[in-house]
């Protein structure tokens, strides 16, 4: 064991550049190294939210498939725009699911409800607020305008029309439209099985009594919740002490059962940072260190041929690097169209003290002024160990490396953290 430990310690010597890779370069290198898993499955529509289509989805038939009334009113015979004073004889009614079964002759009309079939012989619906009814007689009392208030049989979709492309993530709107077009099940790409390894001698489960120097472990809860929110639940999770043999066994176990191995902590160059040399032993570290604050101690490579992400141990840094690098990689493995956080320009609401040297992703709240201007409010410490800086954050402010302390009103790009509803 001692000889093996000595060998691992020797492997922690610095083989990479001091500053690390810029974020965009690191992301590009990771994505270029990955290919979609190609593991598809068929699921019912109600289980497809947040999943990615493996093949295009086409309309089975025209939708709605018949001419439908857009308004409650009266379907009148003919197509010409009538003038006030025109009259018709009421001969029946058409309701949703109970259409009028005959063709309208000249001078005839039927009562019609929203969504009901417009009968043959009618090219116009008069909204009910424009007419007067006396017994079986209908009279137009106000100008009706040119709108016929009839929905086309192919308004939503034509037969064979592509509704969703391959590689598209399915949101609320997509699922609603697919249901309206009669789609019952979908071929979806497989999501990566994620193995999460948390290491640290000082870590205790929440609720346990703390001893000197011990902390309650939070990275598993933070990262599992973040990945779940992004649509990628963690498959297997291990919390292991900082010792070579149990860490080696954990890495091997996760690599054998998962498609991606993610660790937090243990990738720096300290005496108890075993993860990086173990990955070198079991596979390869392709780069180490990210030119970013927070997030410098990050490793990327493979363990037994399985992609490996060694995230920083500090929770904020782990969460931010997971958003910037792990999330795009999981999308790539799933075969989804690449989706990053949307960006917008904001101004600092108050001065921000910082030292130049590394680009930074600072956590901030979004404030909207009365004139519609967008402002960023930075509150409290930006330490990568302080999870409270993530709480309530709407933005990740993109601060260039060369900028030091910033004045109020400074304009910056920011990444929007809030996920879309639809």
Summarize this entry quickly:
The chain has seven helices and 25 strands.
Task: Provide keyphrases for this structure.
7 helices; 422 residues; elongated; alpha+beta
Describe the overall structure.
The strands form seven sheets. Strands 7-4-6-5-9-8 form a six-stranded mixed β-sheet, with no helix packed on it. Strands 16-13-17-20-19-18 form a six-stranded mixed β-sheet, sandwiched between helices. A five-stranded mixed β-barrel has the order 21-23-22-24-25. Helix 2 packs parallel to helix 7 and helix 4 packs parallel to helix 7. With 422 residues, the protein is α+β, with helices and mostly antiparallel strands. It is built from seven helices and 25 strands. It is elongated, with a radius of gyration of 31 Å. The longest helix is centred in the C-terminal third of the chain and has 20 residues.
Largest sheet entry: 6 strands, mixed
Instruction: Categorize the overall geometry.
Output: elongated
Low-confidence stretches: 8-13
Strand content: 25-35%
On the 0-100 scale, what is the average pLDDT? 93
Number of strands: 25
- Work out the helix count: 7
Helix vs. strand class: alpha+beta
Rg computed from alpha carbons, rounded to a whole number of angstroms? 31 Å
Distance between the termini: 55 Å
- Strand numbers in spatial order across the main sheet: 7-4-6-5-9-8
């Amino acid at each position: 064991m001692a000889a093996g430990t000595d060998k691992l310690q020797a492997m922690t010597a610095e083989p990479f550049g001091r500053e690390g890779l810029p974020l965009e370069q690191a992301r590009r290198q990771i994505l270029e190294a990955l290919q979609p898993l190609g593991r598809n499955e068929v699921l019912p529509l109600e289980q497809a939210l947040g999943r990615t289509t493996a093949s295009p989805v086409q309309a089975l038939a025209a939708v709605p498939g018949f001419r439908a009334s857009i308004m409650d009113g009266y379907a009148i015979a003919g197509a010409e725009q009538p003038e006030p004073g025109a009259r018709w004889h009421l001969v029946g009614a058409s309701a949703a699911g109970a259409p009028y079964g005959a063709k309208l002759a000249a001078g005839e009309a039927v009562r019609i409800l929203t969504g009901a079939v417009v009968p043959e012989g009618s090219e116009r619906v008069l909204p009910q607020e424009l007419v007067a009814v006396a017994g079986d007689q209908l009279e137009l009392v106000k100008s009706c305008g040119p709108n016929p208030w009839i929905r086309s049989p192919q308004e939503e979709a034509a037969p064979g029309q592509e509704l969703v492309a391959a590689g598209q993530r399915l949101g609320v709107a997509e699922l609603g439209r697919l249901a309206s077009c009669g789609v019952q099940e979908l071929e979806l790409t497989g999501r990566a099985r994620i193995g999460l390894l948390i290491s640290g001698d000082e870590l205790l489960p929440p609720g346990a009594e703390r001893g000197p120097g011990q902390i309650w472990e939070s990275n598993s809860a933070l990262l599992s919740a973040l990945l779940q929110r992004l649509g990628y639940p963690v498959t297997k999770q291990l919390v292991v002490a900082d010792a070579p043999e149990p860490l080696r066994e954990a890495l091997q176990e996760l690599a054998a059962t998962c498609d991606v191995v993610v660790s937090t902590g243990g990738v720096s160059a300290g005496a108890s940072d075993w993860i990086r040399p173990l990955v070198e032993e079991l596979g390869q570290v392709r780069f180490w260190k990210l030119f970013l604050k927070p997030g410098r101690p990050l490793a990327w490579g493979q363990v037994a041929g399985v992609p490996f992400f060694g995230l920083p141990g500090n929770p904020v840094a782990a969460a931010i690097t997971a958003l910037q690098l792990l999330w795009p990689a999981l999308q790539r493995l799933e075969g989804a169209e690449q989706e990053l956080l949307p960006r917008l320009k904001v101004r600092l609401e108050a001065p921000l003290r910082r030292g130049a040297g590394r680009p930074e992703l600072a956590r901030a709240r979004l404030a909207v002024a009365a004139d519609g201007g967008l402002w960023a409010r930075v509150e409290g410490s930006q330490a990568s160990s302080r999870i409270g800086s993530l709480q309530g954050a709407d933005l990740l402010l993109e601060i260039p490396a060369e900028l030091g302390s910033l004045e109020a009103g400074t304009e910056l790009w920011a990444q929007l953290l809030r996920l879309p509803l639809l």
